[in-house]
Design brief:
This protein is of the alpha+beta class. It is built from two helices and three strands, in the order E-H-E-E-H.
Amino acid sequence: MNEPDPEETLVKIFESERESEALVVQGLLTSAGIDADLTSIDAVQETFPGVGGTAIFVRAEDEEIARRIIEESQGV
């Protein structure tokens, strides 16, 4: 996967408490030719124990098709 250009705008299109679910979504997007960046969103554990998860970011120009792929995969 190519590293995103720091000048590009990235948008969060998916968030899950389960990393495995986010990895499946990332795989769907990657197989469709969309670069998807997986990022941990762990909260401060002393303040919010057990809170966190994983988010997926894509380039702004890929947002619409990425959201459509996710919706179709979830049967929405």
